[in-house]
Model the fold of this input.
Amino acid sequence: MPAATPADVRAAVARRAPDPVYLLVGDDETETAALAAEISSLVEDEMRAFNLERLYAGDKGVTPASIAESARQFPMMSDRRVVVVLRGERLLKPKRRGRGGSDEEGEDDSTEPASELDALTEYILRPVPSTTLAIVATDVDKTRRIWKAALQKNATIVQCWGLKTAKDERVDLRQAARMAEQIVRQAVAQAGQQIEPAAVRLIAGRAGADIARLRGDLGRLLLYATGCSKITLADVQEVVSGETAQDDWAVTNAIQQRNAKEALRQLALSLDAGGVPYMILGQLAWFVRERLSGADPRRVPRAVEALFRTDQEMKSSGGDPRVLLERLVVELCG
Done:
């Protein structure tokens, strides 16, 4: 089937005329997650318990056969069933055991077990018309039979490679900057805000060709500027500063002072410098337990609740760890 753009998918969802199988592939996880959510919206809210299933490839009990079985079920009291498979690269591009026991990517599909992916391959070749199956993956091994025989022929493939149009495309920095600026303007407009042109150029220029950095900076900026009608250059300089010096306790110090702006800025510096999200979460838990309980005990119950929720969401892949930490920092400051 021909490739589709994210706009094509959204238009099909709006018409309630989706294709039977989608492969959402690329490193722009924000875009693939948004598209998966829009495809999920084909199922009415009150019927989601019956007709919407989200599966994580590689989890216990989630196999190619179980995915195909779920997709073959008919919708209950509705015209549409949706099955979303997340972390699809675990099925479509797993690491293979090479010589000497090391993990490596295979050069062909000759060592692929004959039955491992056959059930899902056969489903993609003959999908159920009342089901929409969406597989979200960061990449695909194009030597595998499931790609050669099924996906590239029967699935609608949506490339989501951030600031380039294809995985192996050579990055044109000027084109990437234009795409980044467009993403910034669209996100700000969707938030009901305006942004100064110089602010757009700064946040786009800082990202270069790195879509993850752009998405992170943009999310942090919008969180910081909540309630502001217009985002200024000064706002961007505050939130996505290029500084690299980092005080290990700057985040907790800012939280103790209820300074959300500074806490978010310091969190960004820590993560950009290679800080590990789980270690930062542990530091925040220590801060609540050892310092906040003595300095302002009234804030502790809500802080503990926020910490617990964030810990559970990070462990269950309930969101981007960076976004979850940013939300936690804002809650702790409040």
